[in-house]
Amino acid sequence: MDPAFGGECLRQNLTIMRVGSGCQSESGNLSMEAESTNFVEVTVNGRRQEIPAGASVADLLELLEVSSGRVAVELNREILKKEFWAGATLSGGEELEIVHFVGGG
What we know:
By secondary structure, the protein is mainly beta. It has a single domain (3-100), classed as Ubiquitin-like (UB roll) (Roll), CATH 3.10.20.30. Helices cover 10% and strands 32% of the residues. The strands form two sheets. Strands 4-3-7-5-6 form a five-stranded mixed β-sheet, with no helix packed on it. Strand 1 and strand 2 form a beta hairpin. It is globular and about 45 Å long. Mean pLDDT is 75; it is low at 1-35.
């Protein structure tokens, strides 16, 4: 697991907040006990990531603490429009690329 994406913290609590190198849970819709949750593996930006089975792309972005503002998501080599994120359920084996757009001059 890659600590930059939550790493083992995702297994401890599905809604996480990274604080230093430790994990701190928050209350939220996705919060549940890891023991009662099945996990699947997806690849995010070239790195393997365990996520809760049945999570959507929108759920994944929330777990990774990625703001949906200036973000593009590619799912299995196809751009996924923002309006489809909540309905795109991840069952394992998918490859995602998440790209942040930055402005500046």
